[in-house]
Write a sequence for this structure.
């Protein structure tokens, strides 16, 4: 395209094409509800029953937020016992230990495979 008299400097390309990682990392209420249903109210790793009153079950990201492409889906999260700031909880474990991160990656893979199977 020839466009004389037009400043050839491109518009800044850093304008957002995709949502910010914060937006992508947002867990929508329906995702939360689906995760809760899947977990049956138990921690998806250790099976500990979550106390709804104290909200000991947390919807944890299985991947770093910046690695989520579009938005957080049911396959990107797991209900884990928390709070994440407490050592010894599963949420803390997947957020702060290498072993936990590996588990989370693997669990996410399983979820994706399972959801693929369900589609077929
Ligand atoms: Zn747990």
């Amino acid at each position: 395209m020839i466009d004389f008299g037009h400043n050839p400097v491109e518009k800044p390309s850093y304008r957002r094409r995709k949502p910010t990682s914060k937006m992508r990392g947002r867990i929508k209420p329906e995702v939360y509800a689906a995760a809760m249903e899947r977990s049956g109210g138990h921690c998806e790793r250790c099976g500990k029953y979550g106390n709804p009153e104290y909200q000991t079950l947390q919807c944890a990201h299985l991947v770093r937020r910046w690695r989520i492409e579009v938005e957080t889906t049911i396959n990107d999260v797991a209900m884990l016992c928390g709070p994440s700031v407490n050592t010894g909880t599963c949420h803390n474990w997947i957020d702060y230990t290498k072993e936990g991160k590996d588990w989370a990656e693997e669990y996410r893979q399983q979820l994706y495979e399972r959801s693929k199977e369900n589609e077929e």
Residues 43, 45-46, 48, 80-81, 90 surround zinc ion (CB under 6 Å). Strands lie at 57-61, 77-81. DSSP finds four helices and two strands in the chain.
